[in-house]
Amino acid sequence: MTGGDVHGDVWARGARDDHAVNVATGGPPDWLRALLRRELDDALAAYPDETAAAEAIAFRHGRDPDEVVLLNGAAQGYALVARVLAPRRPAIVHPQFMEAERVLPGATRVVLGEPFALDGARVPTDADLVVVGNPTNPTGVLHRRADVRALGRTVLVDEAFMDFVPGEPETLAGGDRHGDGAGGDVIVLRSLTKILAVPGLRVGYLLAPPALARRLRNARPAWSVNAPALVVARAAALHPERLAPIVERARRDREALAAALRDLMKVHPGAAANFVLAELPGDGPDALTLATALRQDGIAIRPASTFPGLGSHHVRLTARGGAADARLVQALGRRAVQGTPA
User: Fold this and answer.
1) How much of the chain, in percent, has pLDDT values that exceed 70?
2) Neighbours of 30 (CB within 10 A)
């Protein structure tokens, strides 16, 4: 395994305990599995029709259907925004999911220091697009919606983990969505991959003002979102209460893992997702070395040094609860703290 920007799923391949991929624990919920079995034949028999899914998503967020752009996974949203807006002076608030860097090469990096709270004063005044995560991957920090809106220009806010926040008090998916009156639009990117544990299905959406949403939709390939994904998107939007048990489990598991880790290493305070950002002891192995060693224990973790603003000893650990987290903590204590050789 190299030290490049390797996605968590690469680290997780073949692992018994996957703490590298930050999707919800337990796989797709039973109601979703049953829905897909029931709807699969009809979904596969016709070309995809986004109408019902777009209407359901719009209803959930108090928007109009023409403000919804269905996506083949949230990552597609980054590419669409970059291509359609073609910003001349984009800025990316880091630490942040690295897809923005791939589609906006040469963007200004606005690197936040601990505790990784959004500081709009650090964004260049000439930036014409600002990308920010909320809650942010990999820090787990939840920014205030007022601070995001106050950026005052076109903003792409990645809310892929907002479903894990009870009540979503800081979301910009509904209500005030047209900037702060200073000429900027807020584009909200959402994913269902994380909360529903369906990374193979590829399903997400953008919310944007109607004219911009139309441009984004028209920039997609034909039938960009497959029919089973549209079935899932509609069901999740119509029944958000079904996500509550997933959110509660993630909260409980994250808090327990963070508490267990504090005797071993520094745990950063971000607590708005299903993972923990931690910093290994400086006199022990770095995160890349440790992650490679832990593969021998059947455990996958995500080294976080590839995120701008984080160092060689930062790791992102998805909480799984129970025996899996117990094995992780034991292995970290043995290899990261006590220094057992790989």
Assistant:
1) 92
2) 9
289, with CB counted inside 10 A (0-12, 13-18, 19+), is middle
Cβ atoms within 10 Å, residue 238: 16
CATH classification (class only), 30-238: alpha beta
The DSSP element (H or E) to which 303 belongs, if any, is strand 302-303
Q: For position 274, what pLDDT does the model report? A: 96
What is the three-class DSSP state of 101? helix
Q: Where are the domains of the chain?
A: 8-22+244-337, 30-238
β-pair type (275-279, 299-300): unpaired
Going by C-alpha positions, the residue among 315, 334, 332 that lies closest to residue 324 is 332
CATH 3.20.20.140, domain 8-22+244-337, yes or no:
no
Q: What is the DSSP letter of 113?
A: P
Beta bridge partners of 318: 275
Distance between CA 68 and CA 188 in Å, rounded?
Answer: 10
Average pLDDT over residues 72-87: 96
Report how far residue 133's alpha carbon sits from residue 141's, in angstroms, rounded to the nearest whole number.
9
Q: 68 has which bridge partners?
A: 207
Cβ neighbours of 71 (radius 10 Å): 27
User: Model confidence over 10-54: pLDDT tens digits?
Assistant: 666 667 899 999 999 999 999 999 999 998 888 888 899 999 999
Closest-CA residue to 177 (of 205, 197, 207): 207
pLDDT of residue 195: 96
- Residue range 120-130: average pLDDT? 96
pLDDT at 9: 58
Which two tokens mark 206? Answer: 């953008």
DSSP per-residue letters across 229-298: HHHHHHHHHH-GGGGHHHHHHHHHHHHHHHHHHTTTSEE----SSSEEEEE--TTS--HHHHHHHHGGGT
